[in-house]
Amino acid sequence: MKVTEHIEKANGKTQFSFEILPPLKGQNITSIFESIDPLMEFNPPFIDVTYHREEYVYKEMDNGLLQKQVVRKRPGTVGICAAIQNKYNVDAIPHILCGGFTKEDTENFLIDLNFLGIDNVMALRGDPVKSETYFSPEKEGHNYASELVGQISDLNHGLYLDEEIQNQAQTDFCIGVAGYPEKHMEAPSLDSDIHFLKKKIKKGATYIVTQMFFDNKRYFDFVDKCRAEGITVPIIPGLKPIATKKQLNLIPHRFSLELPDELIMSVVKCKDNAAVREVGIEWCIAQSKELIAAGVPVLHYFSMGKSDNIKAIASQIF
Asked: pTM of the predicted model, to two decimals?
């Protein structure tokens, strides 16, 4: 079932969803099931599975020259999605990226997802690899998420890259995209960021999931700006509880967002990370309650492979 259909079926009741990481290469799927099992009591209609593009490493050869090698640390997104749908009978949403894909790769990826009965995809540009300062697409790939959305939408209309294909089968993907309440780190302003978000909606995206935020006013202001620009699709808030002191510096730097002073000082006063975890849970519970009172369609939690704090929050909310 499509995400938009899940929202319509809920008749205004806020639903619970979460996002997981594929395990590192060399590990099995057991760790994924162990993180999902404790959260199934909250009846998630769908579960997101991130995709991690290949990275480049340079290894020195015997002759002293450097050899470029491709490494993918977290493969398995498609297989995990298939396993989740089979084991739990809930919709799995794979993330699909511009980075690391040619247009042909993307089309073949989408065909495989369609064969598996996967109804939803999250279309993202993706981050630069560590060896790059700025994002660089594949030679025959997409520069922007809006272009990726356009290709998915074309396939939904039976338009393949090979125009000579006869009797083209249409896919029917529900397309999600990312929104940034505090703007994307590369955007010059929030208004310009929303301009390009609107472009993704025009290309065929049907719902938005936001980047994490820790001040609900940021989300409410973002939604108001989107609505003023004629964006009417559901805007799902993304939440993450702080769990360690290190994240006070890591999260603002990595995701280009601000933490409220009250949250910062509460974490600073904690004696250890166990206390930080409790502060993070309580803060996220308060955020969740206010968002539900405002009538958000879904609360989407970034679990990052750990479900204990997400379960503690959901137990107080759902």
From this structure: 0.92
What is the C-alpha to C-alpha distance for residues 168 and 170, in angstroms, rounded to an integer? 6
pLDDT digits (tens, 9 = 90+) for 271-302: 999 999 999 999 999 999 999 999 999 999 99
**Model pLDDT, residue 65:** 66
| 53 has pLDDT over 70 | no
The pLDDT of residue 264 is 97
CB distance 83 to 20 below 8 Å: no
Q: What is the DSSP letter of 215?
A: -
User: Tell me: the pLDDT tens digits for 129-155?
Assistant: 666 666 676 788 898 999 999 999 999
- The second-level CATH assignment, the architecture, of 3-317 is Alpha-Beta Barrel (3.20)
Query: Both ends of the chain: CA-CA distance in Å?
Result: 22
Mean pLDDT of the chain: 91
CA angle, corner 263, sides to 258 and 269, nearest 5?
130
Domain boundaries, the chain: 3-317
As given in the structure block, the two tokens for residue 111 are: 């065909």
Helices of type H across 204-272: 216-228, 247-255, 261-268
Residue 59: phi and psi, rounded to 5, are -110, 135
Average pLDDT over residues 9-18: 97
Rounded Cα–Cα distance for residues 68 and 104 (Å): 23
Quote the tokens at residue 102: 């040619």
CB 84 within 8 A of CB 49: yes
Report long-range pairs for 71-77 (Cβ below 8 Å, ≥24 apart). 72/25, 73/24, 73/25, 74/21, 74/22, 74/23, 74/24, 74/25, 74/50, 75/22, 75/25, 76/22, 76/23, 76/29, 77/22, 77/49, 77/50, 77/51, 77/52
Q: Which of 84, 7, 97, 96 is nearest to 47 (CA)?
A: 84
